[in-house]
Every structure is written in structure tokens, then in C-alpha cells.
Design a protein that fits this description.
Keywords: Transferase. There is one protein chain. 39% of the residues lie in helices and 10% in strands. The chain contains 11 helices and 6 strands. The chain is of the alpha/beta class and 280 residues long. 34% of the residues are buried.
Amino acid sequence: MQDVLPGAPYPPHRFHFISGLPRSGSTLLAALLRQNPRFHADMSSPVAGLVHSLLGEMSKRNEFSGVVDDHQRKRVLTRVVSAFYEDQTAEVIFDTNRSWCTDIALLQELLPGTKVIACVRDIVWILDSVERLVQRNVFQPSGLFGYRTDGSIYTRAETLTAHDGLVGSAYNALKQAYYGAHSVSLMLLQYETLARDPGRAMEAVYRFIGETPFMHDFDHAQYDACDFDARMGTPGLHDVRAKVEFSERSTIVPPDLIKRYADSAFWKIPSLNTRNVLVV
């Protein structure tokens, strides 16, 4: 069970985290979870960034670190997570950030019993999804690439999959969590499963987090982040269609890029799942 903090709202919040790869269904998952009146879920929040920044400020690089011990560090960081959602009336909070996969050990210290749901998808289809947005919004350079007006699908793929890129950093974080000592707290939810069989996907999520199942409406998913997407110069970035369904299509990713990332979906290879991570 997660610790209850003094002064925490009643009933106390329980926390779980959504992470994984971009363009892999995290917004759709949040849109479905928030149908449950007991749950709060949203797009990526600044909570992970706040935790990382404060952890750095309480490290030895700060001249005052000598007066900060690990108990105080834990208390401060736990309060940050809790305080950000203090006004939420929902009992269960799902915070979303792709970096949470690097922090499972930390999360278990701050909020014992918390779970991380990582949304995953083949890298080729992630690149395809991003490229379609770029080519659709020809008059709006995307913030995903620093609003640059040059480049091609090849330079964009290299930017995305670099070790510090949008996809590359999330992919490396995912592998760390998948092969790490705290993988029992990790569930991988494949985009194809969520889109093709949302009932089975959501049933697995509820079982994983130990919550009572809820009757979700897969014909009327709702999510609106139009203002955020417009500021990012990438309209449609967080669009969620009302009806949850899988759309068959041909990829616009060139064959050589397909070949380059063909073996990226390590979670589909049973022999690599040495820690028996739940993959749905």
C-alpha cells in the first residue's frame, strides 16, 4: 500500500504512472481512464521534471546539501507529487511522463506499491505517425523539431531516435525498466491491443493496478488538447477519435528506414522477457 501523508486529502490519493513511447496510445489510455469518476488521468505533466530538478538541487552539487538527508529528500519529493494533485477529488491519480520508466526504483521509495503502465509501439509506426502530422501541417513547423523549416523524413527520424531524442530517450528508458530489478511494477500495453481490443486492454490495466473493473464507453472517448497542440505547431498531436478502433494503412516510411528499425520491438520476443514482465 502507498503511504498516506500527513495533511493529504481524504480519501487519500493513490498514484500510478503512465509512461512508455510517444505516439503509442498514452493519450487514448488517459481518455479512457478518466471516464471512471474515481480516476484522474491526463497528458504529460511537469511532475517528473519537478522531481528531477529538486533531486538535483538536493544533491552534492549544492553547497547546502550537507544539511539535507535522504529522509528529507524523500519527504520533499513525495510532497511534490502529492501537492500537485491536492485539489483533485479523484481517488486514483495517473500521472503521465515518458521519463517515469527511468524512475521506477525512486517511485517505489516515494509511493510503495505504485505501478507504471508503459505504452509501446513499433518504432517504424511511431515515425510514420509523427511524419503524417508533419506532412499534414505544411504551414506550421513543428515544435517537435524546434520549429525548423528544413529537413526530411530521414533527418527527422534521426532527431527522434537519437539517444536524447523524443523516441530514443523514451526507448532507452523503457529498456531500463523492462530489464531492471523493479520490472514487477511495470506493465507494457501495446498500441495495437488497445486499439483493436480495448475491452481486454482495460481489463488487464485494472487487474494490474488492483482496481475494480469499470464499464468504459469505447464509442465515445473524449480528449481535447487543441490549444497545447497549436502552441506546439503540431495540430492533431493529441487527437483521440471518439470510437476506439484500429485503422489499417500503408506506411509512408521509406523501406530503408523500415529495415533500420525492424527489430526494435524487443517486447515481442519472449526469450528476451527474462523477468516475465506483463505485456498486453
